[in-house]
Design goal:
The protein has 4 helices and no strands. The protein has about 80 residues and is mainly α. About 5% of the residues are buried.
């Protein structure tokens, strides 16, 4: 059994720590471990793009698109 640290562990981390932000996003959205095409900011509100990336999801959750976009931006920032 693991100890649940909740949000206290996240709150103590600096928002500037991009590697920690990536770990936090992946813990909340395990789907980010998959590879997706690079998203453009203009596509974040598109149901069509959502269905393209997540064809098996019955309900449209644009928060998933935003999580993928943010994850991609963080990965790009770290690689620079």
């Amino acid at each position: 059994m693991t100890k649940n640290t909740g949000c206290a562990g996240c709150k103590s981390q600096s928002a500037e720590n991009k590697e920690n932000n990536i770990k936090m996003l992946v813990s909340f959205f395990p789907i980010l471990k998959a590879e997706y095409r690079e998203l453009k900011k203009a596509e974040l509100e598109s149901e069509k793009v959502f269905k393209e990336l997540f064809p098996d999801n019955a309900t449209v959750d644009l928060g998933l698109l935003k999580a993928v976009y943010q994850y991609q931006r963080l990965k790009i920032d770290i690689s620079k």
